[in-house]
Each structure stands twice: as C-alpha cells, then as structure tokens.
Amino acid sequence: ASTPLAGGFDLSSDDIDDEIRGIFLEELQEEMQNLAAQLPEWRDAPDDADRLHAIRRIFHTLKGSGRLVGARTLGEFSWHIEHMLNSVRDGHRAVSPAVVQLVGHAAGVLPQLHDALSGVRGVSADLDAITAAADRIAAGEEVFLTEAQVAGAPATAVVEPALETTHPPSVPVDVPALAETDIVADSVAQADTVEVVPETAAQ
User: Fold this and answer.
1) CA separation (Å) from 5 to 10, 25, 71, 73, 122?
2) Confidence of residue 15 (pLDDT cuts 50, 70, 90)
C-alpha cells in the first residue's frame, strides 16, 4: 500500500469506499466556499452572533464528517477551531482580533487539507501551531500567529495571561479570505516576526 500523504485519509479501514470519500471532498469544497463567503462579513462585524454561529457550524460539520470518513487530521483540526468558537459563543471569552485572525489562518489551510485528501500533496502548514494557539485563545489569552509560524517556520513566543473585563471588544482585523473557486491554494506567505500581546478584554 502507498504511504498516505500528511493530512490525507486514514486508509486503515475498509469501511469507507472511494465513493463516500469523493462525496466528502465535495462537501469540504462547499464548506470552504461557504466559509469564504462568511469570513469577510464577520471580519467587518465580529460581534455579529449569526455570522459567528455560521462559521462555527462549518467547523462542526467538518469535524463530524471528517471523523466519519477517515479524514482524521481535518476532523481533529476542525474540533480545535470549533472549541475556540464555542468559548466565544458560550460567553467564556470575548470575540477579539486574535479570534478573528486565528479563524482566518484556519480557513487559509483548508485548501491544503483538501489537496492532501485528494491525493495531490501533503499538508505543509503547521497545524499543531494553529491548534495550540486556538486552545490558548479558547482559554482567554490573546495569541497572534505570523504567516511564518503558520507555514511552519520556528518562532518563540511569550504569551501573557489575559486581563478580564466586562465589555468584549469589537475590533475588526484584516484576515485572509479564501477565493470561492479555489480548491488548490498556494502555500501561506512567509513573515519574520511574531506578535504576542496581553489581551485587553476577555469573557
């Protein structure tokens, strides 16, 4: 048997046939396009709960469907993003520039996961860096990843505990949006620095 690509399907089970995987890849493409449509609107109005819920639902769908068809890497990756958005939805932390940026990074690597699941090429982005940042943000910290970190370049960051306040911020930040028709995306651009700042508002 051929060696699976990084981020590709788990081929150890015979329960999932190629037709089901093909249907899932179509679903993934549709959700990528849906996310591309939702992100710019949410970026401009991050306090819009309806947009937040729609984006959360996309990652919830990819988590569940991915696990069912053997797209384990995508499923677990999506779980971390959903978990972070759950913390916002449930009022455990405020929506913030770090939350919006992290969702943008997550959206930016979905085409790589699509490539891997399609057998084109393995994932090169640092999914662990993204999911680790998502977990920290879910816990109330403000963590910003550079494009270099997302692409896998080594970087050292110091994350300070978040400060608590009763008023969540609503500061839109610029995050990359997916092109609706793109299935195969270029690797994320390189950057040189990482900025980590104390959160000025949480919960």
Assistant:
1) 9, 15, 11, 11, 5
2) confident
Rounded-to-integer distance, Cα 158 and Cα 59, Å: 28
Token output for 19? 């037709």
- pLDDT at 165 exceeding the cut of 60: no
Residue type, 4: P
How far is the C-alpha of 8 from the C-alpha of 3, rounded, in Å?
A: 10
Structure tokens at 125: 């982005």
DSSP helix/strand/coil, 126: coil
Residue 6, CA distances (Å) to 119, 120, 196 in order: 10, 11, 29
Render the burial of 153-191: b for 16+ CB within 10 Å, e for the rest: eeeeeebeebeeeeebbeeeeebbbbeeeebebebbeeb
pLDDT averaged over every residue in the chain: 81
Residue of 129 and 169 predicted with greater confidence? 129
Model pTM score: 0.74
Amino acid identity, position 82: E
Beta carbons of 72 and 66 less than 8 angstroms apart? yes
CA–CA dist 133, 145 (Å, integer)? 8
CB-based contact 111:125 (threshold 8 Å): no
Alpha-carbon separation of residue 34 from 95, 127, 134, 173, 180 (angstroms): 21, 21, 21, 20, 8
